[in-house]
Input
Amino acid sequence: MSEAPLKVAIVGFSGLIGKRHTVHVLENPATDLIAVIDPSPGAASIKTDLGVPETTPIFADVADLLKSTTVPKPDCAIICTPPHTHVPISTTLIEAGIHVLVEKPISDTVESGRALVALAKKNNVHLLVGHHRRFNPYIVAAKKAVSEGIVGNVLAVSAIWALCKPDPYFDADPALSWRKSRSRGGGVVLTNFVHEADILQHLLGRIVRVHAEEITPQRNAEARKDPQHDMAEEGVALTLRFASGVVGTFILSDAAVSPHSFEMGTGENPHIPRVRSGHDGHEAEGDEIDVYRILGTHGTLSVPDLILTSYGKGNARSWNDKLQREKLAIDTDPRVPFERQLDHFVKVVRGQEEPSCTGQAGLAAVQVCQAILESLATKKTVDIAE
Output
């Protein structure tokens, strides 16, 4: 006999990420969307556009859902609200015994995130963080390759995440204003590098030291003249050290025109056109644009194009010899990473799998981001405690 679908509530369903989660929950036979929570004036029309059944109620906040006498208590919830709200919303749900998948970042400070992780453990509730790229087939293949040692001992990593966010990303709606506010969890470090911090640590282990140099801002010039301005950073250049001894560099910018971003390289975000390395940059038969280059004693693996450059297995390693290039395979599972992540969340709640990205792992990514922001503020190198 098959198990009954899990009862799911989505908090903040009208945003970009919330819409994607909503669609996947509606399509998944193992989940039943029993409520959506969003105070936005346009929530009702968005609900209709997404195909959410008319009988599925909209609540203004989590407290209203939990007080309802007409809707059953959810088994689990997916939180897709701005970062500064993640901890208070997750806290309310966890205290009610509801399992949580919270979008990244888990929190906007390490301290509040640490308290949330402890609360979930105390209440015996699963707390997962939505670092969906762990389920991307390119990252799955890269993790397997690095773990199997095909590049030898990893020495260093070089990476770029750079693209140009349009002005409406920040200003199309007053509800989006947090995206340009540092104190409210905005900025390219917490919004975007938190993904990279998680993937880098997923592939290479814990980051223990960072140094950050800010890239000259290009937007909001007038607002930045105010000494008390709260404008978030637009880009940084980073040096990194991992506990394993691996060192790295990372260029991060949301104001640069560039094809070097995970979204453009993999096509994972339907709103961002995919770019390939054909002669005009858009050839369907070209390779994915590289974002990470993992340098080892036996070869270099670039990701997401998954090209391994080496002298070949068993051959001598010398600059006098000709390098070989091999494209590694990825699995052919047709599910997108958000679907894989949802399936995983269901299995974790049912006790069938161990969590991939736990609250603790999500907190480790926030800790790296907070160290970067500290380095920007102090203009010093920052060590990261375990």
In short: The chain has a mean pLDDT of 92. The domain at 6-132+336-358 is CATH 3.40.50.720 (Rossmann fold). The two ends are 45 Å apart (CA to CA). The longest helix spans residues 359-378.
